[in-house]
Amino acid sequence: MKEQIEEIFRQALAGAAGAGELAAPADIDIVVEKPKDEKLGDFSSNLALVLSRAAQKNPRDLAGMLAEHIPVGEGGVESVSVAGPGFINLKMSRGFYRERLKQVVAEGERHGYAPAPKNQKVLLEFVSANPTGPLHVGHGRGAAVGDCLGRLLKVAGYDVRTEYYINDVGNQMNILGRSTWLRYRELLGRPSGEFPEDHYQGDYIMDIAREIEKGHGGDFLDRSEEEVLPFFRKTAANWVLGGIKKDLGDFRVHFDNWFSEQTLYDDGSVDRALNWLRERGFVYDKDGAVWLKSSAFQDDKDRVVVKQSGEQTYFCSDIAYHQNKIERGFTRLIDLFGADHHGYVPRMKAVMEALGYDRSVFHAILVQFVTLKRGGEKVQMSTRSGQFITLSEVVAEVGVDVARYFFLMRGSDTHLDFDLELAKAETPENPVYYIQYAHARICNIFITARQQSVAWPPAGEVDLSPLAEDEEFTLIKKILAFPEVVEKSAQALEVHRVPHYLHELVAVFHGYYKRYRVVTEDGPRTLARLFLLEALRITIQNGLAIMGISAPEKM
RNA sequence: GCGCCCAUAGCUCAGCUGGAUAGAGCGACGGUUUGCGGAACCGUAGGUCGGAGGUUCGAGUCCUCUUGGGCGUACCA
Predict the structure, then answer these.
(1) Which nucleotide's C1' atom has the smallest distance to the CA of A491?
(2) How far is the CA of A35 from the C1' of B49 (A)?
(3) pLDDT value of residue A429
């Protein structure tokens, strides 16, 4: 739809230039938007304001001149006006909107999808939590935002793959293994002293130990720690990772790929990346360690990639990992980070440059913390003591739809208060139900229609001319705005725009529903209104699908 | 100290990459249904967009300074 409107303005510009009223302008981006006040028109362009300086003309005069070149009565244009400092406003005919509405229903599940695929292969990495314990609420937000962004980008025409990077290397894994080993010994009555404070305290460690005991009994008791640790590490990691996969699956988050950090060491990728950088002088030795010259690429300072101990840092394998992403053909890398990792962004951008790519290829999305509340009271959490609310607990309490909605409803770079009591409440305070209720309500109207023997869905073409109320056109316009919402939120990588849009959309509907009856004695009008509601229902369903939230027919 | 993020109605937040008179939900107050689900609808009150400059036709949005909060500033991941 937007393209059509832009074309109208482009023609006007060409017309004015052709008539010699204006120097033929250089390639210019035509910006079309909707006026704030519906009375001003349906579409508006600031074309004259933008051109006024170059044309050395007063923007209002310029606007008036351009407006002359817009053919009223053609292409759905009902009237043209100039307003304010020089906006050109278009009012479209009702026939134009009725036709557009038919298209929405014809598109069905594809309403909102980009008309053409974008030529971009995007790798979207998110969650990527260490497999050292269950996912907590903060991970849940990252999972919801990442998953939604993946769905959104696909709808917007990007070729997207989602990926979970498993940090299965490093000291944390050793501590996980050792924690399990110690619990195992406790379990069998052979504790080796106090359980260390810096080890994993959570109950799940004991569960893993119990699992091992069940399978192997006391087989490991009389063997040295060095000997058994690899087994405990691997078993614990697999157990934890299995739990993470299950929790994410239950949360409707499915990754296209699970990428193990270990494989980057196994196949020599890490060494290869390091050598490559060293040959180009971006890696050097100092103080017995190896450094990346990231300061040459706008990072605050150089970063250690190989410690004095000879051990590679996490950052080191991350270089190889991101190189690997590019080598797999991705042209755009999006990583979701917890807000506490924001300091990591400049060095990743530096890595991209050092590797010979444009720094803008890498894009980080920061996801701020979640404060869990219960009836206004903050729920205290502490990772160290193992006292934290897990994602699966939250999902079990409030349900997947609600949890996802709450995680998605705010811009990801603002702190989020997640109140469990509010989330559970089936009240107007709960926006999830507000939207889902609209969908259920529409479905119920369809049932009523069928009960009253209205042929629905209709066999042939529906005459939409009975649609005549202002509210009906407000609703149609809102429905037609959906593709643009998708496009813009994908472009801005801001998922919260989708729930906001749906809330607005559905608010228009609830008002309309209250005021007008759909199924009446007036057959043609009933059909036309049912048709309108079908377009609306499709839009709600598609919007909720982008969020991974169900569109119930009954509640 | 330096860097990043945030600051908009009593509360929680939008504000579409600089546009027209700054919006919504909740809370408060007052209303709405002999018909499709009241998990709904309508109305009222509520603002110097933290503050001060600047950029221009035009700033909540961009720049500088400043105040208050969050986070970071590892040879941890």
Answers:
(1) B17
(2) 21
(3) 66
The nucleotide minimizing the C1' distance to residue A519's CA is B36
By CB atoms closer than 10 A (0-12, 13-18, 19+), residue A461 is exposed
Residue A53 has pLDDT above 70, yes or no: no
* Own/partner long-range contacts of A222-225 (Cβ < 8 Å, ≥24 apart): A225/A178, A225/A181
Q: Give the amino acid at A128.
A: S
Element (H, E) at A200: none
Strand B nucleotides within a 7 Å radius of protein CB atoms: 2-7, 12-17, 19-21, 23-27, 32, 35-42, 57-58, 70-77
pLDDT band at A255 (very low <50, low <70, confident <90, very high): very high
The answer to whether ipTM exceeds 0.85 is: yes
Helix (H) or strand (E) holding A463, with range, is none
Question: Can you tell me the distance from the alpha carbon of A442 to that of A436, in angstroms, rounded to the nearest whole number?
Answer: 10
A554 CA to B24 C1' distance (Å): 26
Q: Is the pLDDT of residue A325 over 90?
A: yes
Dihedral of CA atoms A116, A120, A121, A124 in degrees, nearest 10, equals -100
| CA A107 to C1' B37, whole Å | 29
Nearest alpha carbon to residue A2 among A72, A102, A92: A92
Separation in Å: B30 C1' and A554 CA: 33
CA proximity to A362, closest of A378, A371, A349, A372: A349
| Helical (H) or strand (E) element with A335 | strand A332-338
Q: CA A103 to CA A451: how far, in whole Å?
A: 27
- Beta partners for residue A33, in sequence order: A44
pLDDT tens for residues A475-486? 999 999 999 999
- Checking if the pLDDT of A390 tops 60, the result is yes
Q: Hey, is A451 helix, strand or coil?
A: helix
3-state class (DSSP) for residue A336: strand
Pure H helices in A167-293: 171-187, 203-216, 225-250, 261-266, 269-279
Å from A152 (CA) to B56 (C1')?
36
Q: Name the protein residue, with chain letter, whose CA is nearest the C1' of B27.
A: A429
Residues in CB range of A83: below 8 A, 6 or more apart: A40, A41, A89
For A147-196, how does the pLDDT look when each residue is reduced to its tens digit (9 = 90+)? 999 999 999 999 999 999 999 998 889 999 999 999 999 999 999 888 98
Mean pLDDT over each residue of chain A, to the nearest integer: 90
Question: In which residue are the tokens 């080890």 written?
Answer: A199
pLDDT digits (tens, 9 = 90+) for A103-159: 999 999 999 999 999 989 999 999 999 999 999 888 999 999 999 999 999 999 999
Q: Compute the distance between CA of residue A530 and CA of residue A536 in angstroms, rounded to an integer.
A: 10
Banded model confidence at residue A385, pLDDT cuts 50, 70, 90? low
For chain A, list the domains and their CATH numbers: 2-92 (3.30.1360.70), 171-250 (no CATH), 430-547 (1.10.730.10)
- Segments in A356-430 forming alpha helices (H): 391-398, 400-408, 420-424
Q: Which residue has the tokens 């009389």?
A: A222
